[in-house]
Amino acid sequence: MGIEKDIQQLNFRNEYQKATVNIIFSANWLHEKINVFLEEEDITQQQYNIMRILRGSQKPLSTLQIRERMLDKMSDTSRIVERMLKKGLVEKSVCSTDKRLVDVVLSKEGYEILEKLDRKNDEIDSVLHHLSIEEAETLNRLLDKMRDYHTTHAM
């Protein structure tokens, strides 16, 4: 099985086009697998990402600071935070040093959901367990190399 069979396309312009299509297809496949875990807690991947960012920061963050750390840079962070506020996952307050900003922290309920999901980390990781540690390291190195080049050589 390969990308050719998965998308029913036999020919690609070259190996670079094939790799591009394969990365996009694989990213979407991985998103679907992760969504299964998050649906049980009724949260999205962006909400999960924000919750982990807030827990990791161990201090209040503005929506701008959250956006800078997000995996999905296109996310409308303010709107996502508002939905999370309505669900009771985060708490907001006016920033003490800059009244124009809003500080966001993880709520008690948000921490509890993260703890539930933490207990499923092995299950989430198992999506890639058919790769050896060495293969996962190689994949990480190649993906980093792909992004690093375009960071230093803007298109």
Overall pLDDT metric = 89
Tell me the count of domains.
2
CATH fold label of the largest domain = Arc Repressor Mutant, subunit A
Tally of contiguous helical segments: 8
Q: What's the CATH C level of the largest domain?
A: Mainly Alpha
Low-confidence stretches: none
Give the strand order of the largest sheet, numbering strands 1, 2, ... along the chain: 1-2
Please compute the radius of gyration using only Cα atoms.
Answer: 19 Å
Roughly what percent helix?
A: 55-70%
Element string (H = helix, E = strand): HHHHHEEHHH
Structural class designation: mainly alpha
Shape: globular
**CATH superfamily heading of the largest domain:** Winged helix-like DNA-binding domain superfamily/Winged helix DNA-binding domain
Would you identify the CATH architecture of the largest domain?
A: Orthogonal Bundle
Instruction: Describe the main β-sheet briefly.
Output: 2 strands, antiparallel
Oligomer: single chain
Terminal CA distance reads 33 Å
